[in-house]
Design a protein that fits this description.
alpha+beta; 2 domains; 4-stranded mixed beta sheet; UDP-n-acetylglucosamine1-carboxyvinyl-transferase, Chain; about 425 residues; binds uridine-diphosphate-N-acetylglucosamine; single chain
Length: about 425
């Protein structure tokens, strides 16, 4: 627990110095998906046997999730991009507040804990800079499966009444297609008695990855990746070996936008192109040529023109790439309208981009971005994970050296960004005081 806190204290003081104006060239390797890896790790709570995952990215969020699982009695062995998780006997069902507060995905552990043990006590996840992040849908789903759920003093306590401690299959219709709620309910339903359906389910690739892992462990899930998921409950799940996490579509999108903002051709791989359809389309629309060859995407930017985006649940344009795309639009020819529809407060990067000379007008959750000929370097702060990435992209194109703070956020979700960008010719250096 201390190591995680110390690491984030360290990155609080660090800066990334990004020297703008250098062309990039070569191939960028995409790591495993953070949002998939985190939830697949919690799925290990469902089995007493070892779950072995590969293609795990090196991120502080993964360290945080390892610490949370260890606090519940899971044995965690990690070597390079491989992690082995053994929840033979769980020693607890109540992860500590300090850990859950800093990592929202850890709240989703309430689903597998309840499914496996019949009880769980998980602190509500903390507030978030990008907007309210309720868990009402998660709780509604668990209740539908037969759990008694109480929220008191910031803790969600859930238990299955009766001596068998087993949830019961149910029909659940989500009010909104929440990714976390879909994953929480899915993990609870796999060990329930009978059949469950989740309607209006999130269709994100990470949900599909979770269902694939669970099916490999012996679950019976169909329909994941579509709006209706059906789960036929089983008595127990086995372990699995060598399950590879899908490539990170958000990291891949960030790299493609790095190519576009520096007007440099780059190869980005591995990418599952269907996971990025909306993003690839917008990049084409704004003037990039995109060539797909299996799991490899080659981007060749031309003159960049303004295009509009509206963030939406998958398969729409992802909110997690809104900030990086806005950085790109700051350098485009014309005026772009960017509407954030998922989070009410996810436009804090606007003020930071304005410090770099961007011309942006805000109208509630819409940003009207008028492209400028050249951004100029400034000290800026990444106010959340994806805003921090947007600052790095803006810095790659700006005149001068941009000093990016807020690396605590960046390190949560980008696996060694500076080394990767440096390998294709960017001048990005971490300044460690
Ligand atoms: C996941 C991703 C995050 C991404 C988000 C949306 C993880 C670990 N994180 O977060 O990177 O930005 O999906 O793509 O996978 N909502 C409700 N009620 C609820 C739950 C959610 O109204 O009970 C709303 C939220 O306020 C938000 C929207 O649904 O507006 C999306 O949230 P959700 O899909 O739950 O996001 P996360 O799973 O937390």
């Amino acid at each position: 627990m201390m190591a995680v806190a110390e690491a984030s204290q360290e990155s609080l003081k660090q800066r990334l110095n990004v020297s703008g104006g250098h062309g990039l060239k070569g191939t960028l390797r995409v790591s495993g998906a953070k949002n998939s890896a985190l939830v697949l790790m919690t799925a290990s709570l469902l089995s007493s046997e070892t779950v072995e995952l590969t293609n795990i990215p090196s991120l502080t969020d993964i360290d945080g999730m390892s610490a949370i699982l260890e606090s519940l009695g899971v044995q965690v062995d990690r070597a390079s991009d491989r992690i082995r998780l053994t929840a033979a006997e769980l020693s607890g069902s109540a992860p500590p507040y300090e850990l859950v507060n800093s990592l929202r995905a850890s709240f989703f552990s309430i689903g597998p804990l309840l499914g496996r043990l019949g009880h769980a006590r998980v602190p509500l996840p903390g507030g978030c800079r990008i907007g309210a992040r309720p868990v009402i849908e998660h709780i509604r789903g668990l209740k539908a499966l037969g759990a008694v759920v109480n929220v008191e003093h910031g803790i969600v306590s859930a238990s299955v009444p009766g001596s068998r401690k087993r949830l019961s299959g149910a029909q659940i219709v989500l009010d909104c297609p929440s990714v976390g709620a879909t994953e929480t309910i899915l993990m609870a339903a796999v060990l329930a008695e009978g059949v469950s359906t989740i309607e209006n389910a999130a269709q994100e690739p990470e949900v599909q990855d979770l269902a694939n892992l669970l099916n490999t462990m012996g679950a019976r899930i169909t329909g994941a990746g579509g709006p209706v998921i059906t789960v036929e409950g089983v008595e127990r799940l086995r372990g699995c070996s060598n399950y590879p996490v899908i490539p990170d579509r958000i990291e891949a999108g960030t790299f493609l936008m790095a190519a576009a903002i520096t007007r440099s051709p780059l190869v980005v791989e591995p990418v599952i192109p269907e996971h990025l359809s909306a993003v690839l389309q917008k990049l084409r629309d704004c003037g990039c040529s995109i060539e797909i060859n299996g799991r490899s995407v080659t981007i060749t930017p031309g003159e960049i023109h303004a295009v509009d985006i509206t963030t939406q649940p998958f398969p729409g344009f992802p909110t997690d790439l809104q900030a990086p795309f806005m950085a790109l639009m700051c350098t485009a020819k014309g005026t772009s309208v960017i509407s954030e529809k998922i989070y009410e407060n996810r436009l804090q990067h606007v003020a930071e981009l304005q410090r770099m000379g961007a011309s942006i007008r805000l109208e509630s959750s819409t940003a009207i971005v008028e492209g400028v000929a050249q951004l100029s370097a400034a000290p800026v702060t990444g106010t959340d994970l994806r805003a921090a990435a947007a600052m790095v992209l803006a810095g790659l194109s700006a005149k001068g050296i941009t000093e990016v703070s807020g690396l605590k956020h960046l390190d949560r979700g980008y696996d060694d960004l500076e080394a990767k960008l440096s390998s294709v010719g960017a001048e990005v250096k971490r300044n460690i005081p």
